[in-house]
Amino acid sequence: MIPAPLLTGAVYASAALAEIAGCFAFWAWLRLGKPVWWLVPGAASLALFAWLLTLVDTSQAGRAYAAYGGVYITSALVWLWLAEGVRPDRWDLAGAALCLIGAAVILLAPHRA
């Protein structure tokens, strides 16, 4: 059985990929002149993203979304580097580290029910 923190990390990483890919499809259509059919896989990817977030092991949606924010920011910087060819600088990396620390505090801290 996969430990809950690893499963949550995998869900968040998958959700980030789905969200970034979906948003990029819209960006490519509007800003890069790609054909309108790019919106179809983009919308499907965004629906997958929303479904994936429901798999996070927390009883509050807002907490799942808040913690996801740190993962999204980090993933967006990876996308910047791998898909757009722009290497994140030290300020990007420092900001992402702060966000991931914040995400861990939000998701893993003992909360009252």
UniProtKB/TrEMBL annotation:
Keyword Manganese listed? no
Describe its membrane topology: Multi-pass membrane protein
Subcellular compartments? Cell membrane
**What is the first-listed, main subcellular location in coarse terms?**
membrane
Q: Which InterPro entries match?
A: EmrE-like, UPF0060
Q: Pfam families per the record? A: UPF0060
Q: Does Metal-binding show up as a keyword for this record? A: no
Name the domain of life: Bacteria
Which chain regions cross the lipid bilayer? 35-53, 65-82, 94-110
Signal peptide region: none
| Keywords attached to this entry | Cell membrane, Membrane, Transmembrane, Transmembrane helix
UniProt record similarity statement: Belongs to the UPF0060 family.
Question: Could you tell me what this protein is called?
Answer: Small multidrug resistance family-3 protein
